[in-house]
Amino acid sequence: MENKELPGILRKYFWDCNFEELSMKQYPVFISERILNFGDVHSLRWLFGEIDRTFLTDLVSKSRNLNKKTKNYWKLMLHQPEDLTSLNSYRQSI
Hints:
Blueprint: H1 28-38, H2 41-50, H3 53-62, H4 68-77, H5 81-93
């Protein structure tokens, strides 16, 4: 991961930071969590082009900064099978 500037479309998600000083090399977890929580289609597309899927899967499973709904959504979207076991047993019990 090279130390390049973030695209301007992401500025609105980092209203509380000095945007020019943010880089994926220095703050990959912070930037990824913010985009996963609040991002739109364009910012998510950018994120998935920049970050390895394994990194995102690990981040989603360990993060304390993703809200509960977002965390569950990304677990389903990233296909974490161990998290789907309880969902499948719930479906079968209905």
